[in-house]
Design a protein that fits this description.
Elements (H helix, E strand, L loop, with lengths): L15 H52 L3 E5 L8 E4 L4 E5 L5 E5 L5 E4 L11 E6 L9 E5 L5 E5 L3
Antiparallel strand pairs: 1-2, 1-5, 2-3, 4-6, 6-7, 7-8
């Protein structure tokens, strides 16, 4: 190789300065996006739990009608966020495990929601509020309510 001449095949790739600059910019963008991403995850968890609760209520109602007997959705432990079971007293149709970092409360303070053979609630109608615990900015709670006909519905916001 001659001095002063350029090599036939120049080196390809990134310099160390370009690599460090790119990683720094990516770290800054990730730091900015992380809080909104955690709020998005919390919102989706609240939404999924409300749909899980609606599915369990619908299961209890349909089993009561099809078996022509009372079927209950009962909380496990002292609070609804500890999980629940759907059973008719002898058979358990569904068992939901506890949810972490969520608060599930009902307006009537019930330990169980019981459906009769006609598909309507035997117990008083109630509304469930599902919210993150502790509360997070930008994450709204959801309300699952049981109508007079026994059909559950879900909406965004407090009950």
């Amino acid at each position: 190789m001659l001095v002063g001449r350029r090599p036939k095949f120049p080196a390809r790739g990134f310099t160390l300065i370009e690599l460090v600059t790119t990683i720094t910019v990516m770290a800054i963008l990730a730091g900015i996006a992380l809080p909104s991403f955690s709020a998005f995850i919390a919102t989706q968890r609240v939404r999924n739990v409300s749909f899980d609760l609606m599915a369990a209520i619908t299961l209890a109602r349909s089993q009561a009608v099809s078996r022509n007997a009372n079927v209950s959705l009962q909380k496990i432990g002292t609070a609804w966020d500890g999980g629940w079971t759907v059973s008719d007293g002898t058979l358990t149709f569904h068992n939901q495990e506890a949810y972490k970092n969520l608060s599930i409360t009902d307006s009537a303070g019930l330990g169980a929601v019981t459906y009769g053979k006609d598909g309507r609630t035997v117990t008083t109608s109630t509304k469930f509020t599902i919210a993150p615990s502790p509360a997070l900015n930008g994450v709204s709670s959801r309300c699952v309510s049981i109508g007079l006909s026994g059909v559950p519905s879900s909406s965004t916001g407090a009950c």
